[in-house]
Amino acid sequence: MALVVRGIFKLVAVIVIAGGIGGGVGVGLSKLSGDSGGGAAPAPAAKQSATTSGGSSSKSPPPPPASEQAGGVSVHVVDAVFHPAESPSGLRRHRARLTVRVQVTNRGTSVVTPERPSMFVGSAETKTDPNADGPGTSLGTLQPGKAVAVTLRFEIAGAVTTQLRSQLRARVVVAGRSRDTLVTIGSPATAHN
Fold first, then answer.
1. Which parts of 76-125 fold into alpha helices (H)?
2. Is residue 154 within 8 Å of 130, Cβ to Cβ?
3. Residue 157 near residue 166, CB atoms below 8 Å
4. What H or E segment, with its residue span, contains residue 181?
5. Which residue among 5, 14, 104, 177 has the highest number of C-beta atoms inside a 10 angstrom radius?
6. Coil, strand or helix: which one is 84?
7. Whole-model pTM?
8. CA-based nearest residue to 104, from 176, 183, 181
9. What angle do CA 2, 5, 6 make, to 5 degrees?
10. Which pLDDT tens digit goes with each residue over 51-76?
11. How far apart are the C-alpha atoms of 63 and 123, rounded to whole Å?
């Protein structure tokens, strides 16, 4: 993570220096040509955002994106509902399901195939449950100009469940976009939630 951040800082420094040199050359050329307008100001540096990937269960959440539609994909979290377990075994192990309804729009011009969505509670990461995937629960391939509404399902247990229930806040990462999300308590988890 430190290497990614250091690399981004170097990239921004190069862009800023290049913009300054380019602006200085533009001012010099405008003086030579007799233009009294002083030349054009250098363009602002492009913002970059770093995200992390992988299945580690204890890493820092990725930073929020530079813009809502960076890279052509936008994500809107409709709601997030915590469903506690109701079986004796599930209650003993502090099991629960978090369902998160999202709308994902590919505003770009190329097909996007996002990684499996994940959720962070504190520094603990949980990927969506592949056993709960079915119609309307996975993103698949996002075609240009198309929007997809899905319900993501996260199976959690232990300390993650306890922390989520007390904080009622999670960070959901979908298609490389990170969203802080408030969570409501719903009915106990069943096969249909």
1. 88-92
2. no
3. no
4. strand 177-182
5. 177
6. strand
7. 0.62
8. 176
9. 85
10. 333 333 445 555 444 333 346 899 99
11. 12
